[in-house]
Amino acid sequence: RHLKRTYKRAVQHTTPDVICFLGDLMDEGNVADDVQFANYFSRFVDIFTQPTADTLMLFIPGDNDVGGVGLEALPMRSDRVLRFKQYFNVQDEWLAHSSLRFIHVNRMEMTMTESTYLSNAEQQTYTVLLSHVPLLRSTDTFTYQAIDEFQPNVIFSGHEHKSLHIKTHRNRLQQGVTFAPLNTAGGSRHEVLEFNLDYLRDTRELLEFVVPTCSYRMGEMKIGYGYAMFDGDKLRYTVLWTSQRIYQLAAYSMLLIPLKLVCGQIWCNILKRYWCCCRKRPRNYLPLPLG
Fold first, then answer.
1. Residue 279 has pLDDT above 70, yes or no
2. Is the domain of 172 the same as that of 271?
3. Major location, coarse class (predicted)?
4. Considering the entire predicted model, what is its pTM?
C-alpha cells in the first residue's frame, strides 16, 4: 500500500509523459518459477499503473529480475531474460515526441541495440541512455563503445538504490570517476539541478544520474522517485523523496509493544473475572445431627 500510494502521488504531482523503470522490478524475479513470476508481475502492475493511455512506460531488466550481477548473483539465463521481455514488452529503443529518444544499454549482458533512427545531429533529437548498472562506473571498452555510438546527452541508471550523479569530460573517464550524492543532505533535499544539453554536447561532457530506489525493502533509509524535465535544450532534475518507511515501521513497532501489553493485561483481567465468577465454588456442609 505504501508503494502504491507514493507512486500515485508522484504521478499526480508530475503528470509525466514518460515513466522509466530502471530494473530490479521484483525482489526475487531471478529465482522465481513461472507461477511465482506471474504473481509478482500482477502485483507490480497493480501498484505501478499506467496513468493515461498516452503515457509511455519503459521497462529494463535488473539483476533481481534476470540475475547476472555480483558475486552472489545467479548467472543470467536466456530463459529468464526472454520471460522478462515477454511480460514487460521490453524494447531496446523508444522515440518520445520526435525530439527525445531513449536507448537501453545492457551492461549486464554487454549488449546494445543498433539505432534505427537518425543521429542526434541529423534529426535534432536528444538521446537518453537507460542502464540498470551505472554506465560510467566502469571505464571499459563497452562504456566507450556506448558513448561513441549513441553520443548520449544524459544517462539514467539504477542498481545501487542511492541518489548519485556525475558530470565529467569524456577524456577524464580513464582516470576514474567518483559519483557524488545528490539531494541527500537536509538542506538540499528539494534542490532542482539544471543543465544545458547543447552545452554538454559541445563540450563533450557526460552526465549520469543514479536514481534511488522507491521501495524500503531494498534496505535504504532514503527512498524516492527521480524526476527529470526536458524543456528545449534545458534539463532539470530532482528527487521526489517519500517518507522514510523504516522509521515509520520502527515507530509502529514501538507503539505496538505497550499497546499489546495493555490489551493483554485487560484481557487477562476479563478472563480472570470470568473464571472467578463461573468456576465451581466449594461448599462447606454442617454435619448432620445424630439421632
1. no
2. no
3. membrane
4. 0.81
